[in-house]
Each structure stands twice: as C-alpha cells, then as structure tokens.
Amino acid sequence: MNYFPKKLFNKLKVYYFYFINEKSRKFFFILIWRKINNLFNKNSGDKFNKNFILEWCNRKTISEQNFYRRIGLKNSQNFFDDKKAYYLQAKLKEKKLKYKMGGMAHLNLIYNLNKHLFPKKILETGVAFGWSTLVFILSKSKQASLTSIDLSYPTISSHKFVAMAVPNNLKKKFKLLRGIDNNFLNFFKKNKTFFDFIHYDSDKSYIGRKKNYELVWNILKKNGCFVSDDISDNSAFYEFIKSKKINYFIIKSSSKYVGIVFK
Questions:
Q1: How many CA atoms within 13 Å lie on the side-chain side of 239?
Q2: What are the backbone angles phi and psi of residue 125, rounded to the nearest 5°?
Q3: What is the pTM of this model?
Q4: How far is CA 251 from the centre of its chain?
Q5: C-beta separation of 127 from 142 below 8 A
Q6: Is the same domain home to 15 and 103?
Q7: Of these four, 86, 123, 171, 230, which has the most CB atoms within 10 Å of its CB?
Q8: How many CB atoms lie within 10 A of CB 87?
Q9: Same structural domain for residues 92 and 163?
Q10: What's the pLDDT tens digit per position in 89-111?
Q11: What is the pLDDT of residue 255?
Q12: Rounded distance, CA 98 to CA 257, Å?
C-alpha cells in the first residue's frame, strides 16, 4: 500500500474505532469537527517552517547537566538506576502489548525536577502506557497530588492499557481523567484550579498546542514549572515563549527536544 492511501486508511480506522466504542463515541464528533475546522481555518498552519524550528531548537539546546546547574540542582539522579525494578517490570508489560502506545517522555528530567521542586499539585496531559505517570508517582512527595488527562488510543479495549506501567498497588496515587485535554484545561481555568508542575504531552497539532499552551499558562502557579515534549514538531512553543517574553530552556532527549519554562 502506498504511503498516502495507507495514511488515509489508518486515519479512517482511528475514527472508526472511536465511533464504534460507546465510551469514546462522543470524541468521534469532536475530532471530526476539529479536522473540518482546521481545513477552513487559515490560522491553523505553522507561521514558521519546521527547518527553522529545528535549527532554533538545536541552537538553543543546553545539556541536561547544565540545565540542572542553572536551576540549582547539584546532585541529579538517574530514574533507571534508582527505580530499576519498577522500570524493568513496566518494560516487560510494554513488550507484551500488540501495538505501540507512544514513546517515553524525558523520564530523568521529570524525575529530577519533581524531586528538586517538590510540587504540591501536578498535572500531566497525555498518559498512554504511563511512563511519565509512573515517574511522577515514584518521585513526588506523599502530600502531592497527581492529575493525569488521557484520551484513550482508538483501538478496541485500548482504555484497559492506559497507565499500564503503573503497578496496581500505586493506582490510587493519581487521578485519571479520560477525555480531551482542552476540555479539562478549560474546566480548570474556569474553576480556578492551579498547578505547580504541568507536563504537556497530549495534542501535538499546531492549533491544539496554541490553544492549550495558553490554558496551561493560565493555570500554572507563580514560580510553577511547565514542561512540553516534542517542541520541534511545529512552531507553537517558539511562538508561545516569544509572545510571553519568558525565559526558557531546551534540552534534547534522543532525537526530540523538550521545552521548559518557569512562571
């Protein structure tokens, strides 16, 4: 099958699974509306091309250790060593899955920031298999709360695999909200619910990030930390930090770039 017919087929299959699953059917109509809206919205495209953003990310990137020094973290730790048993247990579960549920976030970064900043209220958008969720749970203080937003993958029974990396005995240590990130972010803003640490790893589209970054900024407490994965996908993060005129850090994780800002 050629690339474009295959891509179209996969897209149709995604929407089909959302539609046939009673629990996710309402998301089918929302996602269809998003597609139609993006087609007719002239402002839905990047204002800067991807090569420009990639060059900017590469130019502004600092090492992970340099970043830790800049924020006053003297002794960074390694999640994969400190919590090896949890990591290996989750990795074994992941290997048994029949389909890929998305890759890891920058787990060491989350682990060290969480242990250094001691946030009381944490929010993550995008859970999938639950790597970042696991790290947040293992590194947060006992008094801290973790709220996680996830829209299940559009395949039969995929909702059962969300946060599978988290052992059953730790499931009560976070609150899982199933649905569209923008809806919950708007809800938090309306109800004046604020967070100390927000990790964004959900809607990766340009228009989705443009809307959600603004909401994230509104519900982030003063001196709070905001981390966004995959910022080189489009120009949304670049436009966000330029419009707010805020200091930022960029570090590289494998072939991806992670953006970090403090309010």
A1: 18
A2: -110, 120
A3: 0.85
A4: 16
A5: no
A6: no
A7: 123
A8: 19
A9: yes
A10: 999 998 887 767 677 899 999 99
A11: 85
A12: 28
